[in-house]
Specification:
- The complex is a heterodimer of chains A (320) and B (539).
- Chain A is built from 9 helices and 7 strands, in the order ββββααβαβααβαααα.
- By secondary structure, chain A is an alpha+beta fold.
- The longest helix of chain A is centred in the last third of the chain and has 28 residues.
- Chain B has 539 residues and is an alpha+beta fold.
- In chain B, the strands form 5 sheets. In chain B, strands 1, 2, 3, 4 and 5 form a 5-stranded antiparallel beta sheet that branches. In chain B, strands 10, 11, 12, 13 and 16 form a 5-stranded antiparallel beta sheet that branches.
- In chain B, helix 2 packs antiparallel against helix 17 and helix 11 packs across helix 12.
- The chains are: A alpha+beta (320), B alpha+beta (539).
- The interface between A and B is small, with 10 and 11 residues.
Chain lengths: 320, 539
């Protein structure tokens, strides 16, 4: 369930990297994991800073207008932080013998971690597949270069078989996060429902007391048993209710799809400009300036002028 | 329990802003060490001259014998990382030095915002542009001197300078003074307070800088800096704000190595420990002030501000704009104490009346109000804009995420500001009369002292001066000292309940530009002796 949250799909993929052969790139014969890292090192990043804004090369992911964030990481192995701390006195009395190394976890193969969060209507598997197919269509050269040394990836993949591979390597995203809410999301408190539930249970317990007594229990034992059962029921049902609520996706924020976000960023910048230019102007000029603003920047039109994906600032804004 | 510092072990420039203590003339001499033994000899011979932090006046009751005769000229020494390499310090000591100190200021240009417009270092003074190979800056000797009433330094400054020159001369070229300051390639960098003539014609030092602001308020106050009897009063406005909203001194370790800091630990690192103890780091920055550009911009924008706000007083608009940019009125009165032009004028009248009447209690209260304020009551920046220079440089309690909670128990005071403070020890350079030059060689020699240049000075410079995200200001930079790119702006917020709109200062030009500098280590007297003797032993 946490793969889908807040109107976005959070994809997490762990693809094992080959370890059984050496590969060659530009005359350099080296391990597959090294060459995956080398390929990633040459992958252009988003033009996120003033220093890179002028570059003509941008992140290939900017071609996919559903992608908010995408990230690749090579995980070579797990980290071993040393022995668990144990009281030295206890060790000297009962062990374990510090000379014997602690067991520690190892990965059997390095992994390529690929995470992305993208616009999706629901957690329907079709949403993920359509995204992956679209991604392959727009980024095939980069994706095949990155994934080519992952176990079983091979060559000659199609959009559909790329999607098959990624879905096979998908793991559950246990802690998705994004924040496009500008105010508090419309969440209702469970408090009232929990109170009602506790009330119903208490009423039931109250009714149970004379019934138990009728079955020959003493009043004291009947009361005690009803109380105990009531507490257990309230805690059990309450826990279940909280669990259920927690596993429903966080509501989708308004206008949180990428094209809307880009348009919003674009408008913010253009409106700042308007606000500055309009300072000290009379009403007629202000009216005219705002009319001009609406005509030029078309706030309601996502296909109108907007900010380019993968860049910071509207200097690279798309003229419609 | 107040911490007692070994004042005689701490160099005087760490605890004292000399410029405000009767030494308005400063001179910085930079040297290169070509030979370690000659370098050690140079340090050894200067050692007896070094001014420590011992007190000059007996009324400052610090425990122990800590009084010395007030010198005519102060001497202080500091080293760049490569200076310490040239002095043959052990690798095990050098390897523990902080990365930013090893890099030096030029290498940190990206972080500091000194790369504006490509390679802005082309505008640096020759000494800093040439600081490589056998012209690498290794040592800084700083001298501060008293002044005659005609505005010239006392003769002792020339004598002290000649002494340093002679010591270098005597090394036979093994310790060399590096020239290259300003357009005339001067042999050293002079700086000094701006002067104003008194009624009797005598020139007196002021706390003004070239833009016309009054500088030097709100320096941090830390444990041990003042005698126990004075520390709690001194901490008001300068120390840290505790969760219960009272003021207390900052931890000593924020400004002196080898003492517990605000993380409640003694930071590890430099070896041996007695080499680091009572020392600190310093950024030396020569900051050019483009006074002409500043005045033009303020004059131009004041006309618009006057019209938008309907003041009918362009002169008042000019003062208001300057105050909103700095956070203080031009005479130093904080916006938090007097948020409007009228209130400022009233504040001045009150101060003048109290001075005339010799009303000490009122004067003390007025003096306290220059520094004793918090931002909790002004989260939107209606009094002092959130992006004003002063509010960025020392955020006080502004970043407390629970500052506006209705439960006082949630308040955290200045906790997110306590590890970002720096001691400022700078003075202006250029003509001492503000009316002389507009865009020539003038500005501030900015000295920032702190235990970690990375955590304190660089953080404030990068995150708070050259960026605005911590204040919800996007990438707006400091209106005064920040880089002003093509779309620079400065927002003066307005009360939504009022009838005036907010005002946005549009595309200010570059007011302040770096002309060079470097990072220095200011050793304790113990460490200076160890350096001179060649006995720094990390084992």
């Amino acid at each position: 369930m946490p793969n889908f949250d807040g109107g976005h799909y959070f994809l997490t993929v762990l693809a094992p990297i080959e370890t059984d052969r050496l590969v060659e790139h530009d005359g350099l014969r080296s391990s597959a994991v090294h060459m995956v890292q080398s390929t990633l090192a040459t992958l252009p990043t988003a033009r996120q800073t003033e220093a890179t804004e002028w570059l003509r090369l941008g992140s290939p992911f900017a071609r996919s207008t559903r992608t908010h964030f995408a990230r690749f990481v090579v995980i070579n192995d797990t980290v071993f932080n040393g022995r668990d701390p144990i009281d030295a006195l206890r060790v000297s009395l009962v062990g374990p013998n510090p000379v014997i190394p602690f067991a520690n976890d190892r990965l059997t193969t390095p992994f390529l971690l690929f995470t992305a969060d993208f616009d999706a209507a629901s957690d329907d598997p079709g949403e993920l597949r359509s995204y992956l197919v679209d991604l392959w269509t727009k980024l095939e050269p980069e994706l095949s270069a990155i994934f080519q040394y992952c176990v079983g990836f091979g060559t000659g993949r199609t959009a559909e078989s790329f999607a098959d591979y990624i879905i096979a390597c998908q793991i559950e995203t246990t802690m998705p996060f994004n924040d496009y809410w500008t105010g508090a999301p419309p969440l209702t408190s469970l408090k009232d429902k929990l109170c009602t539930m506790a009330g119903v249970v208490a009423l039931g317990a109250l009714v149970a007391v004379p019934i138990l007594h009728a079955f020959g229990w003493t009043w004291g034992w009947s009361l005690l048993a009803a109380l105990a059962a009531g507490i257990v029921l309230v805690l059990g049902i309450g826990y279940e209710m909280v669990e259920r609520r927690a596993s429903t996706p966080f509501p989708r924020a308004p206008h949180c799809d990428l094209p809307s976000v880009l348009k919003a960023l674009y408008l913010q910048q253009q409106f700042s400009r308007l606000a500055i230019d309009a300072q000290g102007q009379d009403d007629a000029t202000l009216h005219a300036l705002f009319g001009q603003f609406l005509a030029t920047h078309r706030p309601g039109d996502l296909n109108g002028p907007t900010q380019l994906p993968g860049v910071i600032g509207a200097t690279g804004a798309k003229a419609s | 329990m107040t911490r007692i510092l070994d004042l005689a072990d701490i160099q005087g420039n760490v605890l004292r802003p000399y410029g405000r203590m009767g030494f308005p003339k400063a001179r910085f001499i930079f040297l290169h060490i070509a030979d370690a033994a000659a370098g050690r000899d140079f340090v050894w011979k200067l050692l007896p001259k070094i001014t420590t932090s011992t007190r000059w006046e007996s009324k400052e009751a610090y425990p122990g014998e800590v009084i010395q005769r007030r010198p005519e000229v102060t001497f202080n020494l500091a080293f760049t990382f490569y200076g310490l390499v040239a002095l043959d310090l052990p690798t095990a000591t050098l390897a523990q030095m902080p990365a930013e100190f090893i890099d030096g200021m030029a290498e940190r240009a990206n972080i500091l915002g000194d790369l504006r417009g490509g390679n802005a270092q082309q505008a640096w003074d020759p000494i800093w542009q040439n600081s490589t190979g056998d012209a690498k800056v290794h040592v800084m000797v700083s001298l501060n001197a008293q002044m005659h009433h005609d505005g010239t330094p006392i003769a002792a400054l020339a004598t002290a300078t000649a002494h340093v020159m002679a010591l270098a001369e005597a090394s036979g070229g093994k310790v060399r003074v590096l020239p290259g300051h300003g357009p005339d390639n001067a042999l050293y960098q002079d700086s000094g307070a701006l002067l104003e003539a008194a009624a009797d014609g005598k020139l007196l030092p002021t706390a003004k800088e070239h833009f016309g602001f009054t500088d030097g308020f709100g320096d941090p106050v830390f444990d041990g800096q003042y005698p126990a009897a004075e520390i709690s009063a001194e901490a008001v406005g300068g120390g840290k704000i505790l969760p219960d909203q009272s003021w207390g001194p900052l931890a000593t370790g924020e400004f002196l190595l080898g003492h517990p800091d605000e993380a409640q630990e003694i930071p590890g690192g430099l070896l041996p420990p007695e080499f680091a103890r009572n020392g600190t780091f310093m950024a030396y920055r020569k900051l050019q002030e483009n006074v002409g550009a500043f005045q033009d911009y303020i004059a131009r924008t004041a006309v618009l501000y006057d019209r938008v706000m309907g003041l009918g007083d362009v002169e008042a608009a000019r003062e208001i704009l300057m105050a909103k940019i700095a956070g203080r009125w031009s005479d130093g009165v904080p916006l938090m104490a007097a948020p409007t032009f009228t209130e400022w004028r009233a504040f001045q009248v009150r101060e003048a009346a109290a001075t005339k009447a010799g009303d000490k209690a009122t004067l003390a209260a007025i003096e306290r109000s220059y520094v004793d304020f918090k931002y909790r009551a002004d989260p939107a920046g209606l009094r002092c804009p959130v992006g004003a220079h002063m509010r960025r440089a020392n955020t006080r309690d502004m970043l407390d995420p629970s500052a506006n909670s209705t439960h006082p128990k949630d308040w955290n005071g200045s906790v997110l500001n306590n590890r970002r403070r720096v001691l400022r020890r700078g003075l202006p350079y250029g003509p001492t009369d503000r009316s002389v030059a507009l865009n020539g060689e003038q500005g501030i020699i900015f000295l920032a002292l702190c235990a970690s240049l990375f955590r304190q000075f660089e953080f404030v410079q990068q995150q708070w001066m050259q960026y605005g995200l911590d204040f919800n200001l996007g990438n707006d930079t400091c209106p005064l000292v920040g880089n002003h790119g093509e779309a620079a702006k400065f927002v003066i917020a307005a009360d939504p309940a009022g009838d005036k709109p907010p005002f946005i200062c549009d595309r200010p030009p570059q007011f302040v530009e770096t002309r060079g500098g470097d990072y220095f280590f200011i050793p304790s007297m113990t460490a200076l002796r160890m350096i001179a003797m060649g006995t720094v032993d990390p084992t």
